[in-house]
Amino acid sequence: MRSTILTRTRRWLGASALALMVGVGGVSTAFVMTGQAANAQVQNAAQIVVPQASVQQGFADLVEAVKPAVVSILVEAEAPGESVQRGGRNFEFNFPDLPEDHPFRDFFDQFGQDGPRGAPGGQGRPRHFMAAGSGFITSADGYVVTNNHVVSDATKVTVIFDDGSEHIAEVVGTDERTDLAVLKIEGEDLPFVTFESDEEPSRVGDWVVAVGNPFGLGGTVTVGVISGAGRDIGGSNYGDFLQIDAAVNTGNSGGPAFNTNGEVVGVNTAIYSPNGGNVGIAFAIPARTVRQIVDQLVTDGAVTRGYLGVSIQDVSKDIADSVGLPTASGAIVREPTADGPAVAAGIKSGDIILKVDNEDISDALDLSRTIGSKSPDSTVELTLWRDGAETTVSVQLQVLDETAAAPEQPAEPTPPEAIPEAATSLGMTVVPNGDGSGGLLIQSVEEDTPAAQRGLATGDVILEVDNKPVASAADFDQALAGVEGKGLDTVLLKVSRSGDVQFIGLPIAE
Prior knowledge:
Elements: E1 2-4, E2 17-20, H1 60-66, E3 70-79, H2 105-111, E4 127-137, E5 143-146, H3 148-151, E6 154-160, E7 166-175, E8 180-184, E9 207-212, E10 220-231, E11 241-244, E12 256-258, E13 264-272, E14 282-286, H4 287-300, E15 306-307, E16 310-314, H5 317-323, E17 331-336, H6 341-344, E18 352-356, E19 359-360, H7 364-372, E20 379-386, E21 389-396, E22 398-399, E23 423-425, E24 428-432, E25 440-445, H8 450-453, E26 461-465, E27 468-469, H9 473-485, E28 490-497, E29 500-507
């Protein structure tokens, strides 16, 4: 189980920025009740039948029914070795002239280099290790779901059933972005479980039963409730995690969390912990996401996602006020990607995406997930807020290139010395940007002003004011006058810091 420490990192300008290059991307179980309680029924050749649990009587019937489909995952893996430098852990051997028959040669070969014998600065030999996780069977013919981080770098994967029997597994496919993986074992008529229905998803406050292999203690059962939903744990483009308080620890990764009908509501994947152990907060990938990814991995061995080609950020109240948007919702486009689908459809920097196919978009993460769930090459209709009114555009999505390298961030420019034509307004002094890239350089920011409170700082470059490029003090004053002429009390600034572009709404009322 990955230990995810959720720190409140202050993002500059207080904006939640997200590069939207991707998105994420049941059969209800029948049950039988006789009298006040019923024994669990397991069909050897088919889906498990689970009686509805009675909280007063515990969850023993449910657990007895689902445990045959929950497995432990034993992984043998290999990681690159580390070079060892002299004087400590990073010891570098630097004896190129050491004779081949020298008694120290074997010692250096053991800890030394991948290159020529005795050559300095090489990598150490690969490090072999073993790890354990959890998983569950989703079909009678042996497809198993677990976490990607459980089987990454695996050279051998063994699936261990509750009765102790072992099966060598093949990795069918993995998806790093959602941390899911599908394995395949040989077998017929294996016990399996299903996912909960999208029509009746579990809610915050509903019971969950986690079954897994914490610390190698296979078949461990913990019970709790769904304590939160839609959690974003670390800026993942596919956040939307369920938060549960059932005890989850190292080794539970990839294991299922069940509802009281014995349906899988989520795959346990991370914990919030200051010490690496359970503190009552764990996170599970929701069933709707798991089902979609697993279906693609089983069918194609890989996941393809819709690609819009924009970088985006959340719409704050200040930004909404600056463009006359009634509510702070949607995602504002920082920059469309060159040659991407958005550019072809005419989407511009400063557009706010409010809806996709008439479905409301709450924030940047919601847009990322929504676009990613669409089929590549499909056409979607986007509702935009532009120039104070709604408009619609159609965009034909492309296939996201998962292997494309992220663009390099430009080097941080050296702020030029102050030059004439400085302007002081809104608690800032700005001058033309002397590095030739355009915009206005913020030369100073007064303390305790709205500009300072929203994170603007010396060295930031204002590229646009009210979606209008500015290169001089006169441009700045003219754009500001235009905002006031609209009757707005907040101005939209497009600001660059070290090549990272953000929008910020800055109040202008006295």
